[in-house]
Amino acid sequence: MSIIPPRFLPRVGNDPLTQAFDRPSLGGAMMGGPPGPSPDIDRSYETLWDQPPREPLAAYVNIPFCPSFCPFCGFFKVRHDEELEKRYLASLLREIAREGELLRAHELRISALFIGGGTPALLSPALLGELLEGIARAAPLAADAEITLEGRVSVMDREKAQTIFRGGVNRLSLGIQSFDRGVRARAGRGDSPRKIVSFIDETAALGAGALTLDLMFGLPGQTAEIFARDLETAASLPIDALSAYLTKVMPQTALAREVSDGSALPPLSRLAECYRHADRFLADKGFEKVSANHFRRTQRDRNLYNYLTMGLYDLVGWGAGAGSFTRGKLSLNAQDLGVYADGVERGLKPLAMVRPPHPLAEAMATVSRTLFLGVLGRDLLRREPFDAPLVSELIAVWNEAGLVEEEEKGFKLTQAGFFWRSNLEEGLKGVLSLGLPSARGPAPGAAPTPSRGPMN
Ligand code: SF4
Fold first, then answer.
1. Is the pTM of this model over 0.85?
2. Which of 75, 176, 247, 250 to mutate to test the pocket of ligand 1 (most atoms within 8 A of CB)?
3. DSSP-assigned letter for residue 437
4. Pocket test for ligand 1, best of 70, 153, 253 (most atoms within 8 A of CB)
5. DSSP conformational letter for 14
6. Ligand 1 mean position, distance from CA 454 (Å)
7. Any residues with Cβ below 6 Å from ligand 1, and which?
């Protein structure tokens, strides 16, 4: 009998897309409440930079302010308040300047920077200009760095879009979720579909950077037909790429309370069908699938930040609640704005939590990278620790269940494998960790930043 824990094993003999697992794993994203304060952390840059991060390097800038509270959102956020935002920006730019100097001293360049939240596009044009100017001045960006900003139509107009692109942003990621008026109303979004479409047309006409949209499926009130229409609308627009995310019910959200009796949730089989439809429909419309949820139509969309962070490459995080990931070590800045500002003021990295590297940090990162790209090469499976019999056993079950298929160079994820990617990642990391005395906690997850994600 196998010693692989049953929760890591898919069901065999059923339709893999709809029945391989009970529910998608939530992965390792740092959602929910703030990590408890750790008084013992050495927050001095001297100690923390004893082991500097390595290239390729990503950076995350957190703007936690938000005008609304969407029911599905599990991210850390703070109510919009312009005075507070001004003070916050002053601390944030000091943190970036301090760490930017250290990056320069180590001759490190940032390949992909993501400005997320919250709703960064909510800042006034003046504050946005100040933020982007400060980043350009202080953060050592590679000459071809991808710079993404999360936008939201309700707080944007043409002037703001121009400010954003003029400030160096070359990729705008718009959180749309659905174009359907009723679904949008239930998700706390007031803008009319017509306004969204005309904003996208106008912004694309600026020709200033890649435009990518986030859609969701499985939102309350969103039928498969509505999602199909959402895809049709998105594909008819002049965008470079889009992501289609399954709505995951994060603990302690309004959505979690709404569906606590299970009644408002569409069955998983219907959601999996939505994914199947998106896959086919977008391929027909000329979109290339570059990861489980991301489809691009032009090469202008590089999706580099997502690749680096989902693949557990090193990350520097700036701002309240931002996560950093250095050589397998995860650390989180304080979420409380006062504690954060106080730490910056005292010349310290304003950390609230540090988690030491997993004993198999490199292997864990390799799992994230290979599954993000959807390929498990034979070369990899011959190397330690991937050559372990339990790994072969797990992959054989995946194969039998229809989640991977064998090809000349190894195994590639099937459509169902992509749908259940977070479960496969959790399972493979779990199997690699079996027997490690220090691995009783969770293996490193897919997303070290607490605030980046498919929503805005
Ligand atoms: S999804 Fe974005 S806009 Fe909605 S509450 Fe969360 S941070 Fe705010």
1. yes
2. 75
3. G
4. 70
5. S
6. 10
7. 66, 68-70, 73, 75, 77, 117-119, 152, 455-456
Distance CA(77)–CA(70), nearest Å, equals 11
Distance CA 89, CA 85 (A): 6
Predicted local confidence at residue 77, as pLDDT? 84
Amino acid at position 201, single letter: D
Among the listed residues 137, 136, 148, the one whose alpha carbon sits nearest the alpha carbon of residue 60: 148
Closest CA to 111 of 305, 300, 327, 330: 305
Distance CA 421, CA 105 (A): 38
Maximum distance among all alpha carbons in the chain? 64
CA of 417 to the centre of ligand 1 (A): 29
Query: Whose structure tokens read 């400060």?
Result: 134
Q: State the pLDDT at residue 191.
A: 85
Kindly report the CATH number that applies to the domain delimited by 361-433.
1.10.10
C-alpha dist (Å) from residue 82 to 75, 87, 125: 20, 9, 12
Residue 117 CA: which ligand 1 atom is closest?
A: 7
Residue 333's beta-bridge partner residues? Answer: 351
Buried b vs exposed e over 350-371: b needs ≥16 C-beta within 10 Å?
bbbbbbebbebbebbbbbbbbb
Task: Give the model's pLDDT for residue 438.
Answer: 46
In the chain, the amino acid numbered 41 is I
Enumerate the β-bridge partners of residue 288. Answer: 296
Instruction: Taking each helix axis as running N to C, give the angle between helix 389-401 and helix 421-433, from 0 to 180 degrees, rounded to the nearest 10.
Output: 160
Nearest CA to ligand 1 atom 3: 456
Rg (alpha carbons) of the chain, rounded to whole number = 21
- Compute, in angstroms, the gap from residue 65 CA to the centroid of ligand 1: 9
Domain boundaries, the chain: 45-310, 361-433
Say which amino acid occupies 357: P
Which stretches of the chain score pLDDT less than 50? 28-36, 438-456
> If we measure between CA atoms, which residue out of 428, 451, 411, 421 comes closest to residue 365?
428
To test the ligand 1 pocket, which listed residue (63, 73, 152) has its Cβ within 8 A of the most ligand atoms?
A: 73
Residue with tokens 């803008």: 191
3-state SS class at 289? strand
Those residues whose C-beta lies under 8 Å from the C-beta of residue 245, and which sit 6 or more positions away, are 214, 215, 216, 217, 293, 454
Q: Hey, whose CA ends up nearest to atom 7 of ligand 1?
A: 118
Residue nearest to atom 6 of ligand 1 (CA): 73
Atom of ligand 1 at shortest range from CA of 66:
8
- Considering the segment(s) 45-310 as one domain, its CATH architecture is Alpha-Beta Horseshoe (3.80)
